[in-house]
């Protein structure tokens, strides 16, 4: 298999050496409502399949519990991020609360970093498949297992082997979040297609801006599940820096982090491990439409404030999750 999967194109808007304001996307999805309930993702392991990570970034170093390189850059334990993309995604998901820099949606979750894309943004399909199989079988020293995976990458073609690998991961109970793609033409009537975003087994995330308007670049298609902030998103960046990036790649980790919080909350309430379908149901019940077509926003913007209504979760999971 050739190197024909790449980063979904993104735009670096600004790079900074410091940042001391909570990113607006964290507020948009109402992560603070979950924090007030004591849920910050502790005990939930999130796998990030991307360009690697800045291992020494002060906002990220305490979140990383395992790394693996599936590219030809460096040895198997070298996940140096030559692009900045993976580090930025990781910060939105899990940047620690340390009174400095940014904070992620789930600031106490644990990260398994799988480098599947090289510095130029390309990666082999086989490497991505190997990473997916790896996270489906990975077990930490204390019995930890991956619960959520983030894939902000894509390609134009349906690859049956990749689809099969994704199915294997989902069959293990792992929820996969992917970016819808940035080939949009700012016209809701037209559709744009990218894989793995078009696979039904994944959660496909579109992008909006700070004013809740649909990002002009966000792909429209019938597999979009939800939408989150993806324009001028501030997060961690290599060199212990911070950067403002735009793309559906930046929207996706907001949803990945939200899933970590929902797993915490749901499993605390039900006193058991939730299935992949149940976790998806909780996510969708915590969305609110922005008024766009379903092909643009799916079920709508993730709004974690609804998690306060725990009496409704029984209905969500036991009666409606399979609808």
Q: Can I get a quick summary?
A:
This protein has 323 residues and is α/β, with parallel strands linked by helices.
Q: What do these coordinates show?
A:
There is one protein chain. The chain has helices spanning 24-28, 31-36, 85-94, 125-137, 160-171, 248-270, 276-285, 294-297, 313-319, and strands at residues 5-7, 11-16, 45-50, 64-69, 110-115, 122-123, 146-151, 153-154, 175-179, 203-208, 224-229, 233-237, 241-246, 287-288, 301-302. It is of the alpha/beta class. The protein has one domain: Rossmann fold (3-Layer(aba) Sandwich), CATH 3.40.50.200. It has a seven-stranded parallel β-sheet with strand order 4-5-3-7-9-10-11, with helices on both faces. α3 links the parallel β4 (64-69) and β5. The termini are far apart. Residues 319-323 have low confidence and may be disordered.
Outline the secondary-structure elements.
Elements lengths: L4 E3 L3 E6 L7 H5 L2 H6 L8 E6 L13 E6 L15 H10 L15 E6 L6 E2 L1 H13 L8 E6 L1 E2 L5 H12 L3 E5 L23 E6 L15 E6 L3 E5 L3 E6 L1 H23 L5 H10 L1 E2 L5 H4 L3 E2 L10 H7 L4
Parallel strand pairs: 3-5, 3-7, 4-5, 7-9, 9-10, 10-11
Antiparallel strand pairs: 1-6, 1-8, 2-13, 12-13, 14-15
